[in-house]
Amino acid sequence: MSDADEYPAMMDMHARCVSILANLWGVQKGEKAVGSATTGSSEAIHLGGLAMKRTWQEKRKAEGKDTSKPNIIMGANAQVALEKFARYFEVEARILPVSAKSNYRLDPDLVRENIDENTIGVFVILGSTYTGHFEPVEEISKVLDEYEEKTGNSIPIHVDAASGGFIAPFTHAKAGGPKWNFELPRVKSINVSGHKFGLVYAGVGWIIWRDEKYLPKHLIFELHYLGGTEESYTLNFSRPGAQIIAQYYNLIHLGFTGYQNIMENALRNARLLSRALESTGWYRCISDIHRKKGDHQFVKGKPQYEGSESSADYNAGLPVVAFCFTDDFKKDYPHVKQVSVQNLLRAKQYIVPNYALPPNEEKTEILRVVVRESLSMDMIDRLVTDICGVTEQLMQSDTFDLAGWQPPPSVEKQHSSRGHLAKDKDKHNQPMTKGIHRSVC
């Protein structure tokens, strides 16, 4: 991926992948989309954020205004790469709290309260790492439209679709109905991980700008010493090209129908796992892809909704199952901690992490299962059996027995960001300047 003259076929495949993704995400007629493969979504997010920062700086300088205090908006459920961008590129991260009311995702009302003339952009996540929820891109876009009408300041959106970029376009549920991609003029760039639901092995991400004008010229380098003229606008230079070949192969070999079948099946299996867990009476799901479209809350005793096999009947989201003990279970077995379920499942070779929800909801801990195309119904049956088995084992154990499976709280939790609003940034337990954060990958 470093010498276009030496590997022209590789560069052709790279260009075709960029074109396919741009059109998959609704690039509009007359726009000339540009993009690049990256080393995962982290680099892609940094490039998207950097483009927004440089665009903001150029506009402010042209108007003779101060450029020393840029800020960017994101939810407390943001993946660590988003916070890394803010710290590495000297941008104030306004990390807004999420709540059960906002479905554990970025709240448009809080966005409205925290943007100003120094806001370079908003990171909106299509597929929360914690719970799999899609953030309301179109609602946030409307908030920014209203702000621009009042102030004249245009704030762009970068969609972090690391997981959802290969889910929303193919599934019948889409993003739940509202728009999320380049169909919204406010969305200037989108990233995705090829090694997540793009079905490629680890080491490839993609960043696409809807038009070349949204990639500042001075971020593009021209190279002339490799035999021809080549443009580069990535943080890495030399990198393997095998993942690009695999991505192109998947896109051509599977096609739209192939990806759709795989993603619909993953959602179907995730719904099956969700229903099985809630049927025990011991667990409730924080994720809601198994509930009827528009129904987001767990209600004790409510019959399970079983619509058609199509995801269109259900809430949109990633094929992620985030679950926790029910209130009744906690009342009956107060000595049992969820971390014991994680530890006992690990002994059976499962990695089902247990961790707290984002700041503001950190009192709720969840267990999380990501349903990939390789998780078959037979494996789900075995997983449910083993979860029930370890839960029953915990229910039959006393406090002394459980001590070995329930380690004390980690030091990490004592140094977590609190998710305060911008006006309360001085109250952060560990603000950006201290360099210690709690996030998930």
From TrEMBL:
<dbReference type="GO" id="GO:0005829">
    <property type="term" value="C:cytosol"/>
</dbReference>
<dbReference type="Pfam" id="PF00282">
    <property type="entry name" value="Pyridoxal_deC"/>
</dbReference>
<dbReference type="InterPro" id="IPR015421">
    <property type="entry name" value="PyrdxlP-dep_Trfase_major"/>
</dbReference>
<dbReference type="InterPro" id="IPR010107">
    <property type="entry name" value="Glutamate_decarboxylase"/>
</dbReference>
<dbReference type="GO" id="GO:0030170">
    <property type="term" value="F:pyridoxal phosphate binding"/>
</dbReference>
<feature type="region of interest" description="Disordered">
    <location>
        <begin position="404"/>
        <end position="441"/>
    </location>
</feature>
<dbReference type="GO" id="GO:0004351">
    <property type="term" value="F:glutamate decarboxylase activity"/>
</dbReference>
<dbReference type="InterPro" id="IPR015424">
    <property type="entry name" value="PyrdxlP-dep_Trfase"/>
</dbReference>
<feature type="modified residue" description="N6-(pyridoxal phosphate)lysine">
    <location>
        <position position="196"/>
    </location>
</feature>
<keyword id="KW-0663">Pyridoxal phosphate</keyword>
<dbReference type="GO" id="GO:0006538">
    <property type="term" value="P:L-glutamate catabolic process"/>
</dbReference>
<keyword id="KW-0456">Lyase</keyword>
<keyword id="KW-0210">Decarboxylase</keyword>
<dbReference type="InterPro" id="IPR002129">
    <property type="entry name" value="PyrdxlP-dep_de-COase"/>
</dbReference>
<protein>
    <recommendedName>
        <fullName>Glutamate decarboxylase</fullName>
        <ecNumber>4.1.1.15</ecNumber>
    </recommendedName>
</protein>
<comment type="similarity">
    <text>Belongs to the group II decarboxylase family.</text>
</comment>
